[in-house]
Amino acid sequence: MTAITTEPTEKTGARTAEAAELISDARERIDALDDRIIGLVQERMAVSAVIQKERIASGGRRVNLSREMEILATYRDALGRPGTALAMTLLELCRGKI
């Protein structure tokens, strides 16, 4: 049987040592995932900058709205309504405000 402490562990909010350890390990994984996600977003921003530069240099517009609609649909289909908000944030990070 796992002992229950009288106070939750401050860092994790857990009431047992087992739960606190599991939460700490899972948080380390989340932190590593967040680092990877940030790196991928930065990479996406760099690729988007290349696309915008070439599009403008060729006489096109900075933003391709039909392509953005495809991206919004992809995120919405994969993640539901919050996916649309996430995609909008990514688009704004990558191309700036329109």
Automatic annotation (TrEMBL):
<dbReference type="InterPro" id="IPR036263">
    <property type="entry name" value="Chorismate_II_sf"/>
</dbReference>
<dbReference type="InterPro" id="IPR002701">
    <property type="entry name" value="CM_II_prokaryot"/>
</dbReference>
<dbReference type="Pfam" id="PF01817">
    <property type="entry name" value="CM_2"/>
</dbReference>
<feature type="domain" description="Chorismate mutase">
    <location>
        <begin position="17"/>
        <end position="98"/>
    </location>
</feature>
<dbReference type="GO" id="GO:0004106">
    <property type="term" value="F:chorismate mutase activity"/>
</dbReference>
<feature type="coiled-coil region">
    <location>
        <begin position="16"/>
        <end position="43"/>
    </location>
</feature>
<dbReference type="InterPro" id="IPR010958">
    <property type="entry name" value="Chorismate_mutase_highGC-bac"/>
</dbReference>
<keyword id="KW-0175">Coiled coil</keyword>
<protein>
    <submittedName>
        <fullName>Chorismate mutase</fullName>
        <ecNumber>5.4.99.5</ecNumber>
    </submittedName>
</protein>
<keyword id="KW-0413">Isomerase</keyword>
<dbReference type="InterPro" id="IPR036979">
    <property type="entry name" value="CM_dom_sf"/>
</dbReference>
